[in-house]
Amino acid sequence: MFSRRRLLFSSAAGAGSALFGRGAAAQPPAGNPTHSHLAPARHSGGGRTPVITPNGTSLPYRMENGVKVFHLTAEPVKREFLSPTVPGGTDGFTVNCWGYNGMTPGPTIEAFEGDRVRIYVTNKLPEGTSIHWHGFILPNGMDGVSGLTQPKIAPGETFAYEFTLKQTGTLMYHPHFDEMTQIALGMHGFFVIHPRDAAVRRVDRDFAIFLNEWSIKPGTATPDPTVMLDFNVFTFNSRVFPGTDPMLVRIGDRVRIRIANLTMDSHPMHIHGHKFYVTGTDAGPIQQSAWIPENTTNVPVGATRDIEFVADNPGDWAFHCHKSHHTMNQMGHGLPNLLGVDATNTEQRLNALTPGTMVMGTTGMGDMSDMQQVLATPRNSIAMRGGDGPYGSIDMGGMFTVVKIREQIDYGRDPGWYEQPRGTSAYRVDSMSVPAAPNPHEGHGK
Fold this sequence. Notes:
The chain has helices at residues 17-20, 179-184, 344-353, 367-371, and strands at residues 62-64, 67-82, 93-100, 109-112, 116-123, 132-134, 158-164, 169-174, 189-194, 205-214, 233-236, 247-250, 254-261, 267-271, 276-281, 284-285, 292-294, 296-299, 303-310, 315-321, 387-389, 392-394, 400-406. The strands form five sheets. Strands 10, 11, 13, 15, 16, 17 and 19 form a seven-stranded mixed β-sheet that branches. Strands 1, 2, 3, 5 and 7 form a five-stranded mixed β-sheet that branches. It is mostly beta strands. It contains four helices and 23 strands.
């Protein structure tokens, strides 16, 4: 039975050294839990569950006289939105971005409330930059707005930011210099501040997904930062489906998904097969009495949202933005609307001039998912379709991934597709079905 009581969270095993530093796993000081109503932990261990950034990583630190020291380098990066080895990504899709430490989004920073942190920021961009700690309560001179609270960080310079963490929650970092270009090219990252008491707001699986949208013309590799709303590529952590890592979860796990949005659009994030509670924003945790049960929640521009649920329904469950264009890959815009048009004669005439021409979109766009398996795409581009599933083409792409929930699961290994128990799958009713109309494009591309 799903209830708020079950949704009060436990923790998995202690945080790994790769996520919380180079040495032993981070452990907050021991103390007596003040929230006795919390459900008991599923797993033993007193540490906090580390945040998993799918297709990304977390930033290590070193200790210097009681201060946690991190280092970020702002620099141009090449990011594979889709790897050549991924089905559906025959030639791959690599994009010229800007980011931090060789990646976009930048590595996730994790620390505890009360920690003193110092972050060195080195600029290897061809222009100035700064870094803003989005949502933080800190001294004015550490806020990172170039020209207002600090000089810009010129190319080659390193600035240090140092402050004490006075809050908890899912926060962000991003530039406040030439924001239109730098944020549009991928300069952003998570900064997660955990409660000092490891018993508070504990979960078994803790994921972080940064939303982004890009304008990249087919055959090119550099996004156009001047585009305001007409985007054609949509990503989770700068990857498109089927290149997005699935989120692996065990039955009964308490799950948190942290979602961040610095794009030009809001994104209604939707999960299948479960309901969740909205439990936090970039201003911090929401008190339990104000939790909102939802199946879809809108993540506004410049905001984060924490959603939390108990994984009590096994299967491969879609998690995606519910704006229909945002679950498409590199689609073209400005095309003529051919829906319902009989283009048979037109296609025959065009084929006489240019053999192999297809007029598509007259009966909808779904058949493109199948045709794009045999048709070539421009260099360094991706097909509009998503990837292959156990029952054929998954025609969603972009801001789409899968939450894979199993009774037993190795968190470090994709279990493959879910085998639905007998009698639990939709099926064709032959006695009520009629033969499909002939495919006018049968044989194209073969």
